[in-house]
Amino acid sequence: MDSFHQTANLTPNISANHDQVPDELSNYPIIHHQPIQWGEMDAFNHLNNVIYYRYAESARIVYLQALGMFDGSMVTMLAQSSCQYLRPVTYPDTLLVGVRCQRLGTTSIIIEYSYYSSAQQAVVATAEAVIVRLDSKGKDKLPWTEDERERLLTLELAFGHTPEL
Q1: In terms of pTM, does the model score above 0.85?
Q2: What angle do CA 60, 62, 65 make, to 5 degrees?
Q3: Which of 38, 43, 93, 103 could form a disulfide with 119 if both were Cys (CB 3.0 to 4.6 A apart)?
Q4: 30 phi and psi, to 5 degrees?
């Protein structure tokens, strides 16, 4: 078993067995399981739009942990994020949040997300975020190392996805 799946097996909310993942998420190396909580509903009885960004943050951290890039030594900054809401989500439900790299730049990464509703058996939202890597003082951009780039590409290719470079 490779190191990415060993990491995934240690984290209870990641699907290490992609045989049980919906086809829509089969090319996403990380699947973050996110149960919907009653208190996350808004006045219209559906999942509040802000909550999707919280879920993206949690899924992004799991992705970076799987790559060994979230150990406290790296400083990253969220430069941009967006979410497209396709269908309303209501309690009770569990979202499967697929995470993958859309584009790997010199000092940035564009991460894409696909939110799959277990109750609806459909993708209910898509999103993306631009993350910039900074030096330890958080002031200057810092390039990804060759080792980090190689780990990311190895993980992505293992699930049939090739990010833009």
Answers
A1: yes
A2: 110
A3: 93
A4: -120, 130
